[in-house]
Amino acid sequence: MTDAAKKPLKILDTGTAAVCTGDSCQVPDHGSHAEVNRLLDEDAV
Amino acid sequence: MVSDAIKVDIWSDVQCPWCYIGKRKFEAGVRQYGGVVEVEYHSFELAPDTPVDFDGTPVEYLSQRKGLPLEQVERMLANLTEIAEGVELHYDYGSVHQTNTIKAHELLHYAKSVGRQLDMKERLLKAYFVDGRHIGRVDDLAALAAEIGLDRVEVVRVLSSGEYLTDVKADVALAAEYGIQGVPFFVIDGRYGISGAQDAVAFANVLAQVRDEKVAEK
């Protein structure tokens, strides 16, 4: 890890992209997944 | 002399579908960027309470954990598989072994110590998503390590002793310090954070921006 690691990060606005949080894996801007994502997000594992 | 290489620290889990897709997109972004990039992977456990030998399929796992109908989870994973095909990754959820990834993360730290982390990361992701291999048990991990030329006996020793567990936990702690809640997460040159499996051009643009900033700072 770089020495700069301890500095606050600037989070770049590169648009939404898919991430996994807990065992929820989202597909932003993907209509067919919207409902699944909502359900998965509700308990935010 | 100041190195021209840009350091990229990537937090991911080896059973994170977007991490493998994001890896391919990031690699494409690096090719578009065209400069030298030094990559280091860091550990992130998405589901640390998952048993090593979960008795069931990923569909059953997600269905049980989330209370979703099996058919709904099947559709979700089918869509994900289709998206993976878009970056030439042939996910086979029918053969995936849902497991705990702590030992895989320990192996990645051992591989880093011998200069082979990137190869090990790719082998583990492919083993899990494409090849239907188990990535939670020491003997299976040692076999995968041996496939990339690492010493099987030494891998069994370090994984059995938990020698690299503190390194895994340190990565998880640093992720929390950064406020990282989901993966993949990319830290560019220790200054910029990018969340998710972005398109290649997003990575290329950020790398070029950092290169320009580093030149201006000289």
Describe the structure.
The complex is a heterodimer of chains A (45) and B (218). Chain A has a domain at 18-45. Chain A contains 1 helix and 3 strands. Chain A has one helix at residues 34-42; strands at 10-11, 20-21, 24-25. Chain B has one domain (6-217): Glutaredoxin (3-Layer(aba) Sandwich), CATH 3.40.30.10. Helix content of chain B is 55%, strand content 10%. The longest helix of chain B is centred in the C-terminal third of the chain and has 18 residues, at 200-217. Chain B is globular, with a radius of gyration of 18 Å. In chain B, 45% of the residues are buried. Chains A and B meet through β1, β2, β3 and α1 of A and α1, α2, α3, α8 and β4 of B. β1 of chain A pairs parallel with β4 of chain B, so a sheet runs across the interface.
Features:
heterodimer, A: 45 residues, alpha+beta, flat, B: 218 residues, Glutaredoxin, 9 helices, globular
Integer tally of domains of chain B: 1
Q: Compute the separation of the termini of chain A in Å.
A: 27 Å
Percent in helix of chain A: 10-25%
Strand content of chain A: 5-15%
Quick recap of the structure?
The complex is a heterodimer of chains A (45) and B (218). Chain A has 45 residues and is of the alpha+beta class.
Helix/strand layout:
The complex is a heterodimer of chains A (45) and B (218).
Chain A: E1 10-11, E2 20-21, E3 24-25, H1 34-42
Chain B: E1 6-12, H1 17-33, E2 37-43, H2 58-66, H3 70-85, H4 102-113, H5 117-129, H6 138-147, H7 152-161, H8 165-178, E3 185-188, E4 192-195, H9 200-217
Parallel strand pairs in B: 1-2
Antiparallel strand pairs in B: 1-3, 3-4
